[in-house]
Structures are given as C-alpha cells and as structure tokens.
Amino acid sequence: MKKFSLILGTLGGAMAGYILSNEKLRKDMAEAPNAEAMAKMLGQHMAKDGKKVAKEVKGFVESDDVQKNLKKAKAFASKKLGVAQKELEKYAKKGVKEAKRYAKKGMKGMGM
C-alpha cells in the first residue's frame, strides 16, 4: 500500500505543477461551468501536451550523452553483480561447511 500512496502523491504533485505552470489551462478551468467540464478540459490539455513531452523525452533518451551514460551504468551494474555473486558463493560455501560440521557433531552425539 505504501507504493500506491507514493504513486498517488507523485501524480497529485505532478498534476498540481502542470496546472500551476499552464496559465491558459488555469483560465479555462476557472471559467468551466462544473467539475465535469473542468476534468474534460484538463484531459484535453494533457493529451495535447503529453504528445509534446513524450517526443522530448524520447529525444532526450536517444541522445548520445544519455546512451553513453547508460552504457556506463550497465557496465557498473554488471561489475557489481559479479562481485555480489562471488560474495554470495563464498557465504554459501561457508554455510555448507558449517552445516556439515554440525551434522557430524550431531551424529557423534547420537553415538553413530
């Protein structure tokens, strides 16, 4: 449930920022006869502006700088994953050794 409230809060903040930054939308909403008309106006503005934002985000993500940094991030993550894997293997081997040692102790205690 924490994730849901976080998403809801983020969307609310984004929506408030969008409304506050769009003077034409605020003016149109102020003149709306009811809440339903206001919601419809908001949807229309968001659909129009959403296409612009999506195009800009796509261009940003596809830029050389972002792609170069993405490659660096992938290499870093891969390296860290390898280190973590080796550490886990080391702890697993240690755990197996300890389990065998305790099993032998248990067998001796039972007279076997």
Structure description:
This protein has 112 residues and is mostly helical. Helices cover 90% and strands 0% of the residues. It contains four helices and no strands. The longest helix is centred in the C-terminal third of the chain and has 46 residues. The two termini are 53 Å apart. The mean pLDDT is 84.
Key words describing this protein structure:
0% strand; elongated
Task: Provide a short characterization of the protein structure.
The protein has 112 residues and is mainly alpha-helical.
The radius of gyration computed from the alpha-carbon positions, rounded to a whole number of angstroms, is 29 Å
Largest sheet: none
Multimer state: single chain
Principal-axes geometry comes out as elongated
Helix content: over 70%
What fraction of residues sit in β-strands?
under 5%
Mean pLDDT over the full residue set: 84
Provide the succession of SSEs.
Answer: HHHH
Instruction: Give the structural class.
Output: mainly alpha
Provide a count of the helices. Answer: 4
β-strand number? 0
State the end-to-end CA separation: 53 Å
Low-confidence stretches: none
